[in-house]
Specification:
Chain A has 635 residues and is mainly α. Among the domains of chain A are: 204-227 and 251-349, no CATH class; 561-635, no CATH class. In chain A, 43% of the residues lie in helices and 6% in strands. In chain A, the strands form seven sheets. A two-stranded antiparallel ribbon of chain A has the order 1-2. The longest helix of chain A is centred in the C-terminal third of the chain and has 17 residues, at 517-533. Chain A is globular. The two termini of chain A are 37 Å apart. Chain B is of the alpha/beta class and 481 residues long. Chain B has a single domain (3-222, 319-472), classed as 3-Layer(aba) Sandwich (Alkaline Phosphatase, subunit A). In chain B, the strands form two sheets. In chain B, strands 1, 5, 6, 7, 8, 9, 10, 11 and 12 form a nine-stranded mixed β-sheet that branches. Classes of the chains: A mainly alpha (635), B alpha/beta (481).
């Protein structure tokens, strides 16, 4: 690795570190290169390692929930080398998992298998097909999940639901590009068949006035509105630019129309338009689904390049902004590929992208209400990673989680800092932190419609996170499951404001949008089985085909007490350990006292003379923490 | 009129004059402050059925006469329905209640249930033609020359959903007209239960100043279930759970908001569930043939039960004189494969709305509830190969015993009581076409909504409060209910 002394990369601006440490850093070598590469010297930075509580807060923002082991590891490594390590960790890919299910186990693929693959990435740990392979790419998975809530594709579209491999291919695009460049991510998303199906760019064709048809505007609109620049011009700190007191639109309907004409001529990779009357008659491969995992390809005859009168749109005016190449005017006569490149470059280089995407990633990882300065610092890194590269997501993610506001916001803005934990993140957290495993499933022979059979393997599969109730059907309880939003507007919107106090204080709370009166009851009730009832040592029910995921209560027995229980054998150690593990050490004195007053009295297991009474303490501590408003807000 | 009420009116009037109209309702306190004085002896319910995605009503209500059908077939050849499959509607051919263009119209072939109701004597089904988001009436030349005030971000799903539901959307946070109606007439209910129930999640329609709403599941209100029976400890699990959600114990605005949400849920759910399962509740589910698979059917059946509860002395509901319900169904964003998709969408909608009417009618309650459709926008009259794109104006359905059905409604330039079906001509020669197949609405959401709110019992001055742009339209009541 190069030891050439370089200027400090821009993602460091705003990062919280003592002056001496900053001096130390600035004098340190940094790798040259176009893409941010953390320096190996960062591996020893005693000044950047935190207390276990601080480490837990960091991990709540960067993983699917802190575990004791991860907290200890982070304290030892420090934030920077932890990030280094995460950037280097091999990606957990859904298609690999589906390959095991289909190839090794011989099962027919279903959307449930994609959900299992998602849990494997979210929970980490041993691979079900090869227990020696440990999935540990937590940051990549957390960021990919955040991206899946911006670049939304949903299995509520039937065709997508029918092709698990297409879902997995799409999610893997997000996983693969999470630490890459935003421009690449934008292109890979654009050309993925799942997105092509979801927002109708697939088989979109140039105007045919003989049929009175025009290009589909769906992808053209949403790629601008939701994925990149948004509706109104932004200052770099994320606030809207105003003219006469009113926001200024980023683009007009004519811009959308122009993009719609650019995004024409793309179809399934194996499409042969000559074999059909209509371009849209090319189809998914219903037998193999193979073209669901190949980028769309271009067919020039169906692409509007502005030259064929009267139907083509000549001189397409795309986004216009200072510095836009050719003022955003697409020159006629291009190929589908060159026009797409021009259009995606045009979008990517719009000054809105940094603050627009930066703010949303901050909201997904750290806080619902970043200060303008925080957004601006992250946007600046998006614009230039310090080496002249725009859109470097590694640098953007580092800037987000190392920012002073991410690290010290809870201290500095205790009333407003933080975000409501998404239901799936809460669920992943308790499973990760409590050693969850799948258990109690069976191997079951399934008969296909043509009479042939195959076997589903859910027996003795501790790392296959399956089961109707516990793993697959979270949408039913939580209004949330991976790639299952109601629309391209995700489960919730970045600017949602819940009723009451937050209205008066102008505070956003995106995740509150799915936190309805009934959902909050369902989420609360769900903690009962998850925290209290299901344990990996329970006797299995022979009726349960698919099993469920259960936690390991006994791992905390020693924390829960050493004697006979009751006030003489208090629960302090358990509550304090859970405070760090689950709540980043931020439990209020009121909550701690309230919990201890209750838990200290416990000295037997209700309804059972054989169960260790300490399990009752563990179950109740988990239940009360996971249903509490204080835990619900990640701070 | 008290001071706050005047202030509100003043702000509203000022806002309606210009571009700042979008902040007209920015101060959430104002409608609430203006509230009071309503009491009703009768019972009425408004039921908003929101069709997420933007319903293509140009294939829901389709010309059947040869001249108009030929235009329709030419303008959208790839998604046109066959003429001989359309379900004829027996509306007046001319004058009041007619489509207004001299043509005849039929429903999409999947809508047999609503056709039957539309064509029956004392019809409970009305069609309101070409409704959409407008600040003021707009002509094609005004639109194309940019000389009329327009709703912001036309053709965008969430912006137009917000406009439909809030009309107009203020600056964030938005209040909806469902929520604002409930703010104004809150005094009409003596019950402590919320006046407004959403069975379809959170959206702008239900948002008011007072938070007088409850968001529930399609079939019930979920209750928090704590196994306190396990635990005879006097300081038991439930009491500790309650202590941790208690007001005043959280130090962060988001925590307090979450705690309030739990408290609101706990305080309301049990009463709602008791009402749904009250003794003597009719078997309304049987009126919804798709209830096992259709979420909107589950929602509407539950709405029928809550309406029944309010009319049959069920505990907690005896003081409910006005109720507003928000239900929804999705999948209407038919950019692709519209012909195979639409029969499912519209067939379900037809069975659901007809089932709702028949359920209430079976209990003698049909005239007490008015159900109406709303949607992001209409779709383009022209097509993109096998689908249609985001449009603007759209036809809507109103169903209920109080509805003067079997007729077409809508505003037209010289109000004569006929509807104003838009031209079906190709874009260039179509006076209603904004330029690319998007049909400029001739009836505003405000007129549509104010007609419903007027039936609900709001005074003319309060309609002006809730719909600040209503003043820009000469016809304030479309007369369909």
């Amino acid at each position: 690795m190069s030891k050439t002394v370089r200027f400090a990369p821009r993602w460091w601006r705003g990062v919280a570190l003592p002056l001496a440490a900053a001096t130390f850093f600035l004098g340190t070598a940094h790798a040259a290169g176009k893409t941010y590469q953390p320096d190996s010297l960062f591996l020893i930075k005693p000044w950047i390692s935190g207390t276990p509580a601080e480490a837990s807060r960091f991990l709540a923002q960067t993983t699917f929930g802190p575990t004791d082991a991860d907290i200890q590891r982070l304290v030892k490594l420090g934030y920077l080398s932890w990030l280094d390590d995460q950037f280097a960790a091999p990606p957990t890919r859904m298609l690999d998992y589906l390959g095991w299910v289909k190839g090794t186990l011989g099962e027919d693929l279903e959307t449930n298998h994609v959900v299992e693959a998602w849990w494997l990435g979210a929970l980490g740990g041993p691979d079900p097909g090869n227990n020696t392979l440990i999935h540990r790419d937590q940051l990549r998975q957390r960021v990919a999940f955040a991206l899946s809530e911006i670049f939304v594709v949903s299995t509520k579209t039937t065709l997508i639901d029918q092709f698990p491999n297409g879902q997995a291919y799409y999610y893997d695009v997000l996983v693969n590009d999470a630490f890459g460049n935003f421009r690449q991510l934008l292109e890979d998303v654009t050309l993925s068949p799942a997105m092509g199906v979801y927002l109708n760019m697939l088989s979109n064709q140039r105007t045919d006035s003989t049929k009175n048809i025009h290009p589909d505007e769906n992808y053209a609109r949403e790629v601008n509105q939701l994925f990149t620049v948004g509706l109104v011009l932004l200052n770099q700190d994320g606030s809207p630019q105003l003219s006469g007191g009113q926001p200024i639109p980023t683009y007009t309907q004519n811009t959308v129309k122009a993009f719609a004409h650019v995004f024409t001529g793309w179809n399934w990779a194996d499409c042969n338009p000559a074999a059909h009357n209509n371009f849209s008659d090319c189809d998914v491969n219903w037998t193999t689904g193979a073209n669901m995992q190949q980028p769309m390809v271009a067919f020039a005859n169906y692409h509007d390049n502005g030259t064929r009168t009267p139907d083509d749109l000549s001189g397409k005016q795309l986004l216009s902004y200072p510095g836009a190449v050719n003022g955003g005017l697409l020159v006629d006569g291009g190929t589908p590929q060159s026009d797409l490149k021009f259009a995606l470059d045009n979008i990517f280089n719009h000054p809105n992208v940094g603050p627009f995407i930066g703010r949303q990633l901050i909201q997904r990882l750290v806080t619902s209400n970043p200060s303008p300065g925080y957004v601006q610092r992250v946007a600046a890194v998006f614009n230039d990673n310090g080496h002249g590269v725009r859109g470097d997501l590694k640098a953007v993610i580092s800037a987000i989680v190392l920012d002073d506001e991410a690290r010290n916001g809870a201290k500095n803005s205790p009333d407003s800092f933080g975000k409501l934990r998404e239901p799936l993140l809460r669920m992943a957290h308790i499973w990760r932190a409590m050693g969850a495993q799948h258990r109690c499933g069976h191997n079951k022979v399934v008969t296909r419609s043509n009479g042939s059979v195959y076997t589903e393997h859910y027996s003795s599969q501790p790392y296959r996170y399956a089961g109707w109730y516990s793993a697959w059907s979270t949408d039913y309880l939580f209004n949330q499951r991976v790639m299952y939003a109601n629309s391209v507007f995700n489960f919730f919107r970045p600017n949602f404001v819940p009723p009451g106090e937050m209205v008066l204080k102008n505070l956003f709370g995106p995740e509150f949008q799915i936190t309805t009166d009934s959902q909050i009851a369902d989420v609360t009730n769900d903690v009962l089985p998850r925290a209290m009832w299901l344990d990996i040592r329970d006797t299995c029910n022979s009726n349960d085909d698919y099993g469920n995921v259960a936690i390991d209560h006994l791992r905390d027995l020693a924390l829960a007490g050493s004697g006979q229980g009751g006030p003489a054998d208090p629960a302090d150690r358990l509550v304090d350990a859970y405070n760090v593990r689950f709540m980043g050490g931020q439990m209020s004195t009121y909550m701690r006292t309230t919990l201890l007053n209750y838990l200290n009295r416990i000295d037997h297991y209700w309804g059972s003379s054989t169960q260790d009474w300490r399990i009752a303490r563990i179950q109740r501590a988990l239940y009360l923490i996971f249903t509490s408003p204080e835990y619900a807000i990640q701070k | 009129m008290n001071f706050d009420r005047r202030k509100f009116l003043c702000k509203t009037a000022h806002a309606a004059l210009g571009a700042s109209v979008y902040s007209a309702l920015g101060n959430l306190q104002l409608v609430h402050a203006a509230a009071g004085g309503y009491s009703f002896s009768d019972y009425k319910a408004l039921v908003c059925i929101f069709l997420y995605g933007g319903n293509d009503a140009f294939n829901m209500v389709v010309p059947t006469d040869n001249a108009h059908y030929a235009q329709y077939q030419t303008v959208r050849p790839k998604v046109a329905l066959a003429q001989n499959t359309l379900l004829a509607l027996n509306a007046p051919g001319s004058g009041a209640g007619s489509p207004g263009d001299g043509g005849t119209y039929g429903f999409h072939p999947a809508m047999t249930d609503l056709q039957t109701l539309f064509n029956q004597a004392s019809s409970p089904v009305a069609i309101v033609a070409n409704v959409g988001t407008l600040v003021q009436p707009v002509t094609k030349s005004q639109y194309q020359n940019g000389t009329a005030a327009l709703p912001p971000q036309l053709f965008s799903h969430n912006d137009q959903q917000a406009y439909w539901q809030s009309s107009p959307p203020s600056n964030a946070p938005i209040t909806g007209w469902g929520g604002r109606i409930c703010d104004l007439i809150a005094s009409a209910n003596t019950s402590t239960l919320p006046m407004l129930n959403s069975l379809a999640g959170e959206d702008a329609f239900i948002r008011g100043d007072s938070g007088n709403n409850y968001i529930m599941n399609a079939g019930d209100a979920a209750t928090i279930d704590i196994p306190d029976s396990w635990d005879t400890n006097p300081n038991n699990l439930k009491s500790v759970f309650d202590a941790l959600r208690a007001a005043g114990t959280q130090a962060n605005a988001l925590e307090r908001t979450y705690a309030n949400q739990i408290n609101h849920s706990v305080n309301t759910a049990a009463q709602i569930n008791a009402a749904i399962n009250a003794t003597g509740m009719p078997k309304f589910d049987s009126f919804f043939p798709n209830i096992s698979s259709s979420d909107v059917d589950r929602q509407l059946s539950t709405v029928a039960k809550l309406i029944w509860a309010a009319n049959n002395g069920v505990a907690g509901y005896t003081g409910q004189k006005r109720q507003v319900f928000f239900v929804s169904t999705g999948g209407f964003d038919t950019h692709d494969r519209q012909l195979p998709i639409q029969p499912v969408l519209l067939g379900t909608l037809s069975r659901s709305m007809a089932g709702f009417y028949r359920a209430l009618n079976s209990a003698g309650l049909a005239s007490k509830a008015t159900a109406f459709t709303a949607s992001d926008f209409g779709r383009t009259l022209s097509c993109n190969d096998d689908g249609t794109d985001h449009g603007w104006g759209s036809h809507h359905l109103v169903v209920g015993g109080a509805v003067a059905g079997g007729r077409f409604y809508g505003d037209n330039a010289s109000y004569t009581g006929t509807a104003a079906m838009p031209s079906l001509a190709l874009s260039k020669s179509n006076p209603n076409d904004a330029g690319y197949g998007q049909i400029i609405p001739t009836t505003s959401v405000d007129q549509y909504a104010a007609t419903l709110a007027g039936w609900f019992g709001l005074s003319a001055s309060d309609l002006a409060l809730i719909f600040p742009n209503l003043t820009n339209f000469s016809v304030k009541n479309l007369g369909f209910v």
